[in-house]
Design brief:
DNA-binding
DNA sequence: ACATTAAATTCGA
DNA sequence: TCGAATTTAATGT
């Protein structure tokens, strides 16, 4: 159980809910913390919860049998994930790794389904979110197979700033170049070169431990 | 892998 | 509690 004010602060979707639904939601949420480097959810374990990131940075990834890894998405404060696995009642098909110490809001399955069955705004949020992620993943297949490292980094950044997934993110994010590299699946030097190329094109501005997005649309559309 | 720069922390007044 | 000195973290090549 968390405070209603806390829920409204960390969950954009909660602001659209009826007040009594907000009470339902907060009653089904607990706060959990994980240290940097730890696995928040292992591949194949049951998905009995829906998770919001309150603070920190994580990445969603899958591991190939030969040990190669494919990074699927970065997750930071304000983002919610896992709804697909919870809805389908199937084990998680990916692994969630904490890149920094993270604080999470964990909603139990029962509460999630109650909102799913009783709240229209909640459903609208879920549809938007699922649709947005689908679009991201389709874009990622194209980028990873065809496009330059600069375009891959541009896409990684644009997903982190995606207004549908991070409505309160604004245009700047505290993240190191090394962390962007981890999410993009590239080494830090390569990431650094790509970031400088994007800065030259005036799509982003680099600051110490921070990145400012100047044109999210162009970042997402970049193909060279 | 190394050199440089920014930030965070420690320490002494 | 202020600021200089030192250490740690991030960046650039």
């Amino acid at each position: 159980m968390i405070e209603a004010s806390k829920l409204l602060e960390i969950a954009n979707w909660a602001r659209e809910l009826d007040p009594d639904h907000v009470d339902r939601a907060r009653a089904g949420i607990v706060i959990k913390q994980y240290p940097a480097g730890s696995t928040v959810h292992e591949f194949g374990l049951p998905s009995d919860s829906w998770i919001g990131v309150i603070d920190g940075l994580m990445k969603m990834r899958i591991l190939a049998p030969d040990g190669r890894e494919v990074s699927l998405a970065g997750l930071h404060a304000g983002g919610w994930f896992g709804e697909g696995s919870v809805l389908k009642g199937e084990p998680r098909r990916y692994e969630i790794l904490a890149l920094r110490d993270v604080t999470l809001a964990v909603m139990d399955r029962k509460t999630f389904f109650w909102l799913f069955e009783n709240s229209l705004p909640f459903n609208q949020f879920l549809v938007r979110q699922l649709n947005q992620r689908l679009g991201q993943f389709i874009g990622q297949v194209i980028h990873d197979r065809i496009l330059s490292t600069t375009a891959r980094v541009a896409r990684t950044i644009s997903t982190l700033f995606d207004p549908a997934l991070y409505p309160d993110a604004g245009d700047s994010l505290e993240i190191t170049q090394e962390e962007i590299g981890l999410i993009a699946g590239l080494t830090r030097p390569v990431t650094n070169q790509a970031l400088r190329a994007l800065e030259t094109r005036e799509l982003i501005r680099l600051e110490y431990g921070k990145i400012v997005a100047l044109d999210i649309q162009k970042l997402a559309a970049l193909t060279t």
